[in-house]
Every structure is written in C-alpha cells, then in structure tokens.
Amino acid sequence: MVKRNNFTEDKNFFILNSMDDRVRIVDPKGKTVFINDVFKNASDKSLELKNYINENASFLMLQRNSTLSNTTMIEEKLIDDRYFSIKTSPIYNGDEFLGIIEVYRDITRESLMKIELFNNNRNMLDDVRFVKKIQSNILPKDNSYANLRLRSKYLPSDELSGDFFDIIKIDDNKYGIYIADIMGHGVKASIMTMFIKLTMNAILDKHPTFSPSEILFKLRDKFAKLGMESSQYFTAWLGVFDFSENKLTFSNAGHNCPPLLYSKSKDEVSFLLVSGRMISNIIEPDNYDEKMVKIEDGDRLLLFSDGAIEAKNEARKEYGLERLRDVYNREHDLEKTYKDIKKFTWGKQEDDLSLVEVEYKEI
C-alpha cells in the first residue's frame, strides 16, 4: 500500500523503473503522476501510445468515480501494432483513494500464437466439415431400390463417423447391402469408410458373380495392400439379395452385431448368425462362413452398429442385444426401435450409432 500522495518522491518507485513492463500511476484527478522509464521511452516514440495514455487516464478516473469499486480490471489492447495485457488497480492509503496504477505487459508473441492457433483450428474444422459433408452424401438415401425399401438412422458421436453402410446394385436381380464399423472416430475412420465404399463398388463391378464370402476375402486383400498399422481394423456384415430366388446370402467379417430378420409370415425375428474374423493386418482369415435364408414379401432386415447395443443408461447398463431383439420383434419398425434406444439412454450418445432397415417387396 502506498502511504503518500507524492508518488515521484517515494524511494520505492525505483523498483517500477527497473521493470520490463510499462507502468504508470494516475492521480484522482486523472493526471498521470508517474510513468516508468520503459513506458516513457515508448511513448516518446509513439504518438498513438501517447494519445492513448492521455485519453485513457480521464476515462479511468470517470469509471473509477462512477463505480467506486475496489476491483482490479484486466483487458487486452492493440496499441501501435503491439498487443498488451493491461492490469488496472486502485491505490488506497487506508480509506483514502490515492489513484490508479496501470501495468502494461507486452503479450504480442502470445497473442500472435493464439491467433495462429485459432486460424489453424478454424481451417481444420473447415476441413472436417468438408469431409463430413462428403461422408454423409455418399451414404445411400432412404428410398426404394428395386424390391428393397431402405430406411436408416445415422448418428455420428463426433463430427466424423466410423460407421458406414451401403446398398449396391449387382444386376437386375441382385442387390448387395453391408454395414461396416471402423475402429475409432475422426478423419482416419472417415477416410477408411470411403476406402470401403470405393473398394466394394469396384469388387462388385468387376466380379458380379462373387459370393459374399468371396467379396469379403477380396476386400481384406485390398485392405492388406494399404499397409496400415496393426491398430487399424474394421468389421463388416454383407448380404446379397437374390430376387429371382427370393433368398438372402450373407457373410460376416467380425461384426459383433448380427442383423435381425423379421419374418412377416411367422411374425418373429431371428439373428442372422455367421462366423468370420474382422478385417485387419493382425490375423489373416482362413475362411468367411456363408449362410442363406429364404425371404418373403414383407420381411424386414435390420442392420445395426455396436453404438445401438452398447448404448448406456444413467446406471451405465447397456441396451444389449436381447432388448434390441425384443423391441424389434414387438415393433418391427426402425423408427420405433430407435425411439426406444433414445428413451433408454435419455438421449445421451457416446458412440456412433447406425440403424439400417431394408424391407423386401415382391414385384
């Protein structure tokens, strides 16, 4: 605490002159009564700084007298192409108000770094939004595809998702549908979804007679040639509808979310279970098993990612396969099933969530 009004005579003020920061003191009338050497040298060279000092002193005292506050204020200002953090504090001798002390700290380097970081983050967010738009646009739209009517719920937990699904025309009587779940989220997972889409399209275009098992083997071979690190992998379930024979043939590459098939004639659902290892560079699969089921008019297939069955409520209990099966058995409707998941979790979502429903219609 300063104990006299004559600041310039206080022997302790040599400390302020030795500071690298710019310091000044303003008396109760708004007059600058002390300015340290660093500040004086700077103001002698800068008309902008000198004008700011003169204008700001009166403003500070007006503000001080109107608020009668003991509050220390901190603000940032750009003065003479330099960024300053300005700390303003009242000075008292007991109850007597003696004036205000200001400390100007040059934070130009830190401010420029923050601006650069902000711009880099903004550019990165722009890139992420661009990739997100592409990822969303390459998903199949809810629509009819020959004998199939597709509906979906695609809810990334982050800006970019590791879930992906697609429906592909093989020929007039055959359509393929698959769902894939890539390890992780973000840009890497998003780019991998695009690799899967392009590769699956290329495989089916070149090898339209391939079975689901052969398609998954080919997909794994293409992935292996990328030379990805061992921590990168994905799972996939693939089914091929054959309208001419009313059948669905399917294989699984480690996808631990076996689709549900609702039989309209039996009014019941069943899991389409088949074994197969995930697609990675860690373990080379020796075989992808393959199964076939007959399908009828009105049957529905529900594909889903682990974000559905691993969704948790407030007690950290998972939604689970059994509940999903029971709800879909009762409702056999994608929208109602999704609403039940949302109700279970109170609308909270921790992982990517995908639900894809395909209804088969005989034409």
UniProtKB/TrEMBL annotation:
GO MF entry, a single one: phosphatase activity
Keyword Hydrolase: yes
Assigned keywords, A-Z: Hydrolase
Pfam families registered for this protein in UniProt: SpoIIE
Ranges of residues in domain PPM-type phosphatase: 145-360
InterPro entries to which the protein is assigned, alphabetical: Bact_Sigma-Reg, PPM-type-like_dom_sf, PPM-type_phosphatase-like_dom
Protein name in UniProt: Stage II sporulation protein E
Upper classification of the organism: Bacteria, Bacillati, Bacillota, Tissierellia, Tissierellales
